[in-house]
Design a protein that fits this description.
5 strands; five-stranded mixed sheet; globular; Maf protein; 6 helices; alpha/beta; single chain
Amino acid sequence: MKDSIKIIVDKLTKENKTISLMESCTGGGVTNAITNIEGASEILKFSAVTYSNEFKIKFGVKEETINKYSVYSIKVAMEMSKKICEYANSDYGVGITGKLNRVDKNNVYGKDNIVFISIYDKNKDKYTTASMEVNEENRVLNKDVIIDEVAYLLMQIII
């Protein structure tokens, strides 16, 4: 994963492009992986960990989308990626939402252990999306699997 993230940071730097992230279940894990690479400050415009619906909404995710599709949906991940991209005026926005090994009493809809990822490319006005099941024994391992998938998707888009 570290090699992939370094390649992504280097490529974005070379192309003078930027990225912003709105992460939920990963708790800033993708942002952390990016900031572990020297030179990340050149490409990382903004990052937000939005665990609550309230702050997803404050950053522009429509409450109606959450109510209709569940906060744990590809539709919400897509809004997260676009809204954070717009908020930070970056070239790429990443949105990640999902449940990891627990029932969410505040959001009873949505499947357990399914994660939704969206990457928005502002210049092409295009989304790349994925959903994945995570079955590792603990949250840390599940986050690592998700971060690897985000890095893989970013490599497909950026490289």
